[in-house]
Amino acid sequence: MADHTSDAEKTIGPPATQLLLENDDVNIWQMRTAAGARFWPHYHHHDYVLFYTTDVLATLDDAPEEHERLWTARYDHTNAETERRAGVMTYAQSLFFIPGTGFLSPGFVNIGDTPMIAPLIEIKRPRRADQEGVGYARTDALVGLPPRPGCVHLLENDRVRVYETTLEPGATDELRPRLDTAVYVIDGAALRIVEEDRGGAVRTRTEELAPTTAQWMPGGCRRQLVNTGSTTYRELSVELK
Hints:
Strand order of the largest sheet: 1-2-12-5-9-13
Distance between the termini: 43 Å
CATH topology of the largest domain: Jelly Rolls
Radius of gyration: 19 Å
Oligomer: single chain
CATH superfamily of the largest domain: Jelly Rolls
Low-confidence stretches: 1-9, 79-85
CATH class of the largest domain: Mainly Beta
């Protein structure tokens, strides 16, 4: 039931539940909201990328009309024939680019049976003049599909370029030029990371990356990932233009 409290009475929290990495360019968060739990009111002052790794059925409580319109326009409606309140269903592997609005979001209630787990990457780097017109974008290209091997180009605009990379043991992605990149590890493994600078010099390092690890990978080089472990590796990477 809506509590109808005023904005001044609401407890305002951060835009996600756990801050994994912060620098001058990005904040990398994990959103984790249990089934039946309420996520607090919050602001989005920065543009952000949100990638669902679980199916989520959610609803708004006590939302202002402007936010209600945005919510209903961006998400799919589900009227389940159960006693649960009707909400909006968002499926695993849905990806969103959402401009920072600066207005108060009322939060949501997870009314489904599964937790909401999603990386949320805030882009703190200021927009250039040629990026001012970048707006909302969404892709459901991978919804309902098993993770595709290799590096899949999910979304691109004048602000970001977003990939999902999945590598089976022994597999590698393409050695290609990289921009400054925020990385969220979905499924961890042991990696060999190969980097080639502009002068052609190559350096290699090995890392054991656990799930929910966040990394900042500077651009200006060509980079390749090799899964040297015994488990599948999967990451979301957001390159900043």
